[in-house]
Design brief:
heterodimer, A: 675 residues, alpha/beta, Rossmann fold, Helix Hairpins, 7-stranded mixed β-sheet, two-stranded antiparallel ribbon, 31 helices, B: alpha+beta, SH3 type barrels
Chain lengths: 675, 78
């Protein structure tokens, strides 16, 4: 039996249940990457169905296929250039008109189409009656009813996809644009056929239509064409702006002649969603409701995470015991026990916190509330030079800045996106919490809670002021126009939210397994190699973690830089290694003060004289503000694509941290606090 | 006589018909694609915050004030 292999692409508007359907088709057989050259997420999955291996490519969710955003260019380039065997468009049955607009554009791209009429159960329960037979007849495209979140209709869809892929020739679909425009289309087609490079790559009619549409991406490509002047001559005979608008109108006209015949009773009524919105976006209730949701999310996170954290702690404790008992070589035992197990353990212990926080945020996002939160916050965000869309990535920063910065991809305007990325590290991530807990717990006793809360607030305030500052100086101008769809409220599925949680949270596990593992080994090496001029063996007991190690030498070199902040060489070293991951600040202080990973003992030592409440406060503020961890710096470089902005982020944050800690320590000492 | 006014001036809970969109080509095309066509009915749900919450063609959008200013409607339902 021969195995066939076909490739299909999933296209659709945002919020039509595309990723749910993608998951329902491919299950766990998927991997996430990036589209070449851009930071748009590319998901590919596979499914074997009736002896055919189907590769499923999830295209970015778009409203149309013009060159308005990178997402749209990525989606259409894929359909045109990679020529998938079948394109499946997921259509939201509750909103046919807008969804069919994309259909008209996919039709023009000349691909084989199958429509998955998703969420038809919701449409039906509202009283809409959609006649799929008529729809197939008018559009000349197979239509299959699906319910993504229940996994219904998937087999039917795949049957149809295989049937369509097996067909030889296929029907070319066309929207008629009326005599005047059609004559221009023909005129352009006749010129374009002479450009071999373009006509081999793109359907001619589509190129002509895009030129009349004023598509910047295609106009750019035409500039280098040998036919450029002739094309310009044709385009100069029309009123471009008028033409563009009337082309969109024609597409809607085509849809509107079909729509009444396939869909009965597409009525407007006050829906359940409208009623919820009436309350949650209320002028007075909106923000209090939002704040209580956030409070609940954090409360649930910390309450439910505690037992899991205990289990992970026990596991690493047990592992350390096993290492100590079985490995007698001093250096190896120390590397594995004090280095790897203690270091990675210190990071993994926050995994339940981060996973649960992301689960809460995924639930809020999947049920539709997050978009409302962005709406509620828009006014506030506008005041700091951003808009509502920037709000969600900032919120995610409380979990981990890495997925938060990746979430800025939904912001279309590059400059708005850049500012959101640059201020994101000030949002205090989960990794900074252990530093606060230890220091605030040791020095501020009963007020520890308030101090930690204050640090979180300080992070938010610094992020706000920085956004304002950057907007006023480096990236001038107003935020781009804000438009965002508010999807109807839906009950999130456990599977869907769990997958979203995993997508964001797994980055943290990866970080622990790669960068942090490498980092802790490096820290250990520095503490095991004797500093120059010290006569002792590598990793011997008199070297490990003392001032005689290379780490000690390094600390003494940089000590003068942080002395005005009230920090000694040990803290200097801890901060340097905190660049690997901020949790490591505590771990390396433990090593340097010779208490291993016993954090209670570390607190006692610090209180006993190594630090004052004032320098502890300074250290917490410094940890909050200074250079983001290596994983965050990496993602900033990747997402901005610029070393200049990455270095700016590192320098700006560290400079600010130094000034803040300096003021705290010097002013505090002057007025006699914390003595 | 129905008046023509920007969408931002519409009281909450009222409906208006789109007359024109006074925006640059890119933004205008975007709005048309999202359903803001001439003669389409737009319902304003919220306008007391920075952004507006509107319904058009069965979809709900958050729309920045600057963008909403550019959409001219008639308040034919007064």
């Amino acid at each position: 039996m021969t195995q066939n292999k076909i490739t299909i692409a999933l296209a659709g508007n945002p919020n039509v249940g595309k990723s749910t359907l993608f998951n329902a088709i491919t299950g766990a057989h998927q991997h996430v990457g990036n589209w070449a050259g851009v930071t748009v997420e590319k998901k590919i999955g596979t499914r074997t169905y009736h002896d055919t291996e189907i590769e499923v490519v999830d295209l970015p969710g778009t409203y149309s296929l013009t060159a308005y955003s990178v997402d749209e260019i990525v989606a259409r380039d894929y359909v045109v250039e990679d020529k998938p065997d079948v394109v499946v468009q997921i259509v939201d049955a509750t909103n046919l008109e807008r969804n069919l607009y994309l259909t008209t554009q996919l039709m023009e791209l000349g691909s084989r189409l199958v429509i998955a009429l998703n969420m038809w159960d919701v449409a039906e329960s509202r009283g809409d009656k959609i006649d799929t037979t008529k729809m197939e007849e008018f559009l000349e495209i197979p239509v299959v009813k699906t319910i993504g979140n229940k996994g219904e209709g998937i087999d039917g869809l795949l049957d149809e996809v295989l049937r369509e892929a097996g067909k030889g020739a296929h029907h070319e679909h066309e929207v008629s644009y009326g005599n005047e425009i059609e004559s221009k289309i023909i005129e352009l087609e006749r010129i374009l056929v002479n450009d071999d490079a373009l006509s081999a790559r793109y359907p001619l009619r589509w190129l002509a239509i895009k030129l009349l549409d004023g598509d910047e991406n295609i106009l750019e490509k035409i500039k280098v064409s040998p036919m450029a002047t002739q094309i310009d001559n044709v385009l100069n005979t029309i009123d471009r702006e008028d033409c563009e608008a009337s082309m969109a109108d024609k597409r809607y006209e085509a849809i509107n002649t079909v729509l009444p015949q396939v869909c009965e009773r597409c009525v407007k009524e006050v829906t359940f969603s409208d009623m919820i919105d009436h309350v949650v976006t209320n002028k007075y209730l909106g923000i209090p409701i939002f704040l209580s949701m956030m409070w609940a999310a954090f409360e649930v996170t910390f309450t439910f995470a505690t037992p899991f954290m205990g289990m992970i702690d026990m596991f690493f404790g047990w592992l350390a015991g096993v290492v100590a008992e079985n490995i007698t070589t001093i250096w190896l035992g120390s590397l594995l026990g004090d280095g790897i197990v203690a270091g990675v353990g210190a990071v993994m212990i926050f995994l339940p916190n981060i996973m649960l926080l992301f689960l809460m945020l995924s639930l809020l996002e999947d049920c539709g509330y997050m978009a409302r939160a962005a709406f509620i916050m828009d006014k506030l965000m506008y005041k700091i030079g951003l808009h509502g869309r920037s709000f969600i990535p900032l919120l995610m920063g409380f979990g981990c800045n890495v997925p938060a910065i990746m979430a800025t991809r939904t912001i279309e305007d590059e400059r708005d996106r850049l500012i959101t990325i640059l201020v994101n590290p000030f949002i205090s991530c989960g990794a900074r919490l252990p530093v606060y807990i230890l220091l605030a717990g040791a020095f501020f006793g009963r007020d520890a809670g308030s101090v930690i809360f204050g640090l979180y607030m300080l992070g938010i305030i610094v992020a706000i002021l920085s956004a304002k500052l950057i907007r006023g100086t480096l990236i001038k101008g107003k935020p781009a126009p804000f438009i965002m769809e508010l999807p109807p409220y839906r009950i999130p599925t456990v599977k869907g939210s769990a997958i979203h949680m995993w997508e964001k949270g797994s980055l943290y596990v990866k970080k622990a397994g790669t960068i942090i593992l490498a980092g802790v080994i490096l820290v250990w090496l520095f503490s095991a190699i004797p500093s120059p001029g010290v006569d002792a063996a590598f990793a011997s007991e008199e070297i490990l973690g003392t001032g005689d190690s290379l780490m000690g030498a390094l600390g003494h070199v940089i000590e003068p830089l942080v002395a005005p902040l009230g920090f000694d060489w040990r803290i200097a070293v801890a901060l340097v290694f905190g660049f690997v991951a901020k949790e490591i600040v505590i771990g390396s202080m433990g090593v340097l003060y010779g208490v291993g990973k016993d954090e209670d003992a570390l607190g006692d030592i610090l209180v006993a004289g190594a630090m004052t409440p004032l320098s502890a406060l300074g250290l917490m503020v410094f940890t909050l503000l200074y250079v983001p961890c290596i994983a965050t710096i990496g993602v900033i470089k990747k997402e901005t694509g610029s070393w200049k902005w990455t270095l700016f982020a590192a320098g700006y944050t560290t400079g600010l941290a130094w000034i803040a800690a300096f003021l705290i320590y010097q002013v505090g000492t002057y007025v006699g606090w914390g003595l | 006589m129905p008046q023509v006014l920007p969408l931002t001036m519409m009281p909450e809970g009222t409906e208006g018909k789109v007359v024109s969109i006074n925006a640059g080509r890119c933004l205008k095309r975007r709005l048309v694609e999202m359903g803001f066509l001439e003669n389409t009915v737009v319902t304003v749900h919220r306008s007391d915050r920075g952004a507006l919450m509107v319904n058009v063609n069965g979809s709900k959008y958050a729309l920045g004030k600057g963008m909403a200013m550019k959409i001219m409607v008639t308040d034919c339902y007064n």
